[in-house]
Each structure stands twice: as C-alpha cells, then as structure tokens.
Design brief:
- The protein has two domains: 232 residues, Spore Coat Polysaccharide Biosynthesis Protein SpsA, Chain A, CATH 3.90.550.10; 92 residues, no CATH class.
- Strands 1, 2, 3, 4, 5, 6, 7, 8, 9 and 10 form a ten-stranded mixed sheet that branches.
- 34% of the residues are buried.
- The protein is an alpha/beta fold.
Length: 335
C-alpha cells in the first residue's frame, strides 16, 4: 500500500490561518533576486471576486531574495505568507513543504523567476474549474523566454486539443511536454497527499500533473497569460537535467506511478518504459554496461509482448524477440 508524506512542521503554522482563501498560490524561490519582485507583483495584481493567498517557500538564498520577500510580506501581511527555510533544502524538499502549506480549494503554481501577465488569469481558470467539475486541472499558454539565447516563443506551440486525459499525459515523453508550471491551477482534492516517493524526483511539475490527471480531465485554455524564463543557473540548466539523467529519472518515475495507479495504465506505461530503455541503451553503447542494458531491454520487450495476451505460440514469440534483438544491435552499431 502506498504511503503519503506527513505535512512538515514549517507548513503547519499557516494551515487555517488565513480567511478562507479560495486559491493558494505556492511559489518556490532560490536566488531569484533579479526576478522575485516581478513574480510577486504579478500575483498581487490579480483581480478576483474571491480571496487568494500567496505562500512563498524561500530556500535560504545567498542573494537578496529573502530580504525582498520579507519586505513584500510586511506590506501585504494578509495576502502573503512566508516559509523561511533555516537552511537550503533543495528544490524538491522546498516544493514539498510549500505544497503542504497550501490548503485552499484550488492551487496555483508560480516559480520565483516567472510571472503572470494577465490580471484576470486566476479568475478565468477558477471560473472554468468551478463550472466544470469533471476537470481536475487547467492550464494555458505561456511565453517561453530563453534569456540565454535571447529568444521568445509560445508554449505549447502545436497543441490542438483543449481537453486532455491521463492517457495524453502519460504519452508526453513521445508527444512532448505541453505545459509550464506558471500556467497550472488544480483542485487540492486531486492531490490531497503527496506519495512518499515524491522526494525521490526532481521533475515535480510532471508528477503534479500526472497525479492530478488521476482524478479528472485537464483543460487547455488557449490564452497567453504568463512568462516562463529559461535562464543561466536555473534548475533545468543543471547537471541533474542532462539528457541521460532526465531519461533515467522518467523511467523510474513511470515505474513508481505504475504501482501508485494500481497498474491501471500498465500497457501504456510499459510502452513508454521501452522507449526510455532504448534511449538508455544507446547512451551506454560505448561502455561495458551496454550489454546489461541490451539484455534487460530485450527481456522487458518480451514481458510487454506477454502483457498483450495475444494468441502467439512459442515460435512466434521467439521470432518477434529475435527480430527486436537484431534491431537493437543494429541501432547500437549505427547510431
């Protein structure tokens, strides 16, 4: 049976303290001195017919981020609550703590180096979720600003669907990721408790969307209402997010999620796992461990064939596996 993490002590002090906000915005920040004021201002400019609260998890920054957050909190004590970590916890632990400090009906996400551009963003998304109970999460278009290469484009660029299901979410490794953290608003009831293995992964936005999609559909609001910054020193630029680390992390994440969802989507998940194994095999093709990856990938492919429960005999299975083994060997030698 899956276990859930308990709320941290740092979160308990804020629970049930505000006057019943309908939306909590959880913002995690670390060394965002040049951006954090713009992020906070974009929240404070929101025009709503409901109460909302900004909860900031400040992760012991080495620049002036903490001082800026404290100054804003002093000016807006009823709107802003701070979690001031006594040491640097890292992005995942800080996100976990901040998540548990938020207990409103709806949750919005915004990182300290991004910001919202539409003062009606929250109102539009909450209005939709209030009127459409079958949806657990709503997101919108973001401007993706690459400060490293000085480029701007809109994300997602080619997504045509406005309604997505968990099957769409689980296909993202092959179809492409489709939302930015700064665009998300979801029902707290969809993610009341984080699974105990949340802290094992750095791709918390992916996991958040996957968990929410277990409890309802996802809606794409085709409006541009936020800015996502890709900048030097950001988490997505760290070694933790080099290609092989991303692939390996996704492989482990999908296996965990398969157990967490009681194997309900196992066939689809296993197709993704095969893709991850293929990429891992190609990465290690010039190292001794490639043969281990090669054998494991073949064995896993055989297992997925058995899952299909097709009326094949031993001969047909052997031919299929041999064909796949030859394909992999050829890929290793030609890539």
């Amino acid at each position: 049976m899956e276990t859930a993490l308990d709320a941290p002590d740092s979160a308990m002090q804020f629970m049930n303290k505000a006057e019943d906000p309908l939306v909590d915005i959880w913002m995690v920040t670390y060394n965002h001195e040049n951006y954090i004021a713009e992020a906070i201002e974009s929240v404070l400019m929101q025009q709503t017919n409901f109460n909302y609260r900004l909860v900031i998890g400040e992760d012991y920054s080495t620049d002036k981020t903490r001082e800026i957050c404290i100054e804003y909190q002093k000016k807006n004590p009823d709107k802003i609550h701070l979690i001031l970590n006594k040491k640097n916890l890292g992005a995942t632990q800080n996100s976990y703590n901040t998540h548990y400090a938020c207990n409103a009906k709806y949750q919005a996400m915004l990182e300290g180096d991004d910001y919202w551009t539409d003062p009606l963003k929250l109102q539009k998304q909450v209005d939709f979720l209030e009127a459409n109970k079958e949806f657990s999460l709503c997101f919108h278009i973001a401007e993706y600003v690459n400060t490293i290469e000085n480029k701007i484009f809109y994300f997602p660029e080619k997504l045509q669907k406005t309604e997505l299901t968990i099957e769409d979410v689980l296909l993202f490794p092959t179809t492409g990721w489709f939302l930015m953290t700064s665009t998300i608003v979801y029902r707290k009831s969809a993610i009341l408790n984080l699974p105990a293995w949340f802290l094992d992964f750095r791709n918390g936005d992916c996991l958040t969307v996957m968990l929410a999609s277990l409890h309802g559909k996802i809606y794409f609001l085709k409006e541009d209402m936020s800015i996502y910054r890709l900048n030097t020193g950001g988490i997505m630029q760290s070694d933790m997010f080099s290609n092989i680390n991303v692939i390996t992390s996704l492989y482990l994440l999908f296996r965990k999620f398969n157990s967490y969802s009681n194997h309900k989507f196992q066939k689809l998940i296993y197709k993704q796992l095969l893709i991850f194994l293929y990429e891992i095999l190609l990465y290690y093709k010039n190292e001794k461990k490639w043969i281990h990856c090669y054998i494991y990938t073949i064995k896993f492919n055989y297992f997925t064939l058995r899952l299909k429960k097709e009326p094949k005999g031993i001969k047909e299975h052997c031919i299929a596996i041999l064909s796949y083994a030859r394909f992999l060997l050829k890929e290793v030698n030609t890539q």
